[in-house]
Amino acid sequence: MTLSRFIPDRFILTMLGVVALASLWPAQGRMEAALATVTNLAIALLFFLHGAKLSRQAIVAGMGHWRLHLLVFGCTFVLFPLLGLLLKPLLQPLVGTPLYLGMLYLCALPATVQSAIAFTSLARGNVPAAICSAAASSLLGIFLTPLLVSWLLGGQGEVAGSTFDAIEKITLQLLVPFIAGQLARRWIGAWVARNKHWLRYVDQASILLVIYSAFGRAVNEGLWSQIPLRALLMLLLCCALLLVLVLALVWLLSGLLGFDTEDRITILFAGSKKSLATGVPMAQVLFPAAAIGAMILPVMLFHQIQLMACAALAQRFSRRPQ
Question: Which terminal CB of the chain, N or C, has fewer other CB atoms within 10 Å?
Answer without folding.
Answer: C
